[in-house]
Every structure is written in C-alpha cells, then in structure tokens.
Specification:
- With about 120 residues, the protein is mostly helical.
- Helices cover about 70% and strands about 0% of the residues.
- It has a domain at about 30-110.
- It has helices at about 10-40, 50-65, 70-85, 90-105.
- The longest helix has about 35 residues, at about 10-40.
- The protein is globular, with a radius of gyration of 17 Å.
C-alpha cells in the first residue's frame, strides 16, 4: 500500500514541526517582551510569567497566522478570541497583545515603542 504525504500521521508531524519552529521564533523575541513588560507593567503585582507572557504570545501568534491583516482588521477577532479563552480582561492585556503582534510583524519598529518615559 502506497503512503501519501498528506495522510494524517504525516500531517500531524508537519504541523508539530511548524509549531516547534514557531516556538523557536517566539523565543528569539522573548527579551523584547520582557523589556516591554519591565517598562510598562513592572509595578503590576502580576508577573510576566504568570500573567503577561500569554498575552505577548497570543499577539505574536496573531502576527504569524494573520500576516496580511492590519491591527485594525485583527483587533476585533483578537478581542473575541482572548475573551472567550482567558480570564484576564481585554483591557488589562490589549497593549501587550498588540506589542506581541507588532513584534512578530516588524520588530525594528518597536525599538522605541516603550510607553514609560525613561528619562525620569
């Protein structure tokens, strides 16, 4: 019996390989996410790892899976998906999601995209 490349086992293997590659790519941006967290949420009692990292990851994944959409086009979808699947409110994490989305799409744009005035 001939085995075809698109049989479920092969498809699952290919999907997992893509997920691993995506994880590796995400990890290259983790330092930027942590820096954004430190500059914008450091006074928040919720930590990067236990609260905000999911929002950055969600935004990053949006950029990967919806590369041709602007933020204005993807924000409503993102809000609905986040609200349906996470306990944190959209207003608490929206900026971290957008940062993750922008980081995936154009990391050079974010070199000065930190909100707290660093001169104080």
């Amino acid at each position: 019996m001939k085995k075809f490349a698109n049989e479920p086992e092969d498809v699952n293997r290919q999907q997992r390989a893509k997920e691993i590659a995506n994880d590796d790519e995400f990890n290259t941006h983790d330092a930027s996410f942590r820096r954004h967290y430190q500059l914008n949420y450091a006074d928040d009692p919720r930590s990067y790892g236990s609260f905000y990292s999911d929002a950055y990851r969600f935004g990053y994944d949006l950029g990967v899976h919806k590369p041709d959409l602007s933020w204005e086009q993807v924000e409503s979808f993102a809000r609905n998906e986040w609200t349906a699947n996470h306990a944190a409110s959209w207003t608490e994490i929206a900026e971290a999601v957008r940062y993750g989305w922008t980081e995936e799409r154009d990391p050079d744009k974010l070199q000065v995209h930190h909100y707290r005035d660093q001169s104080s």
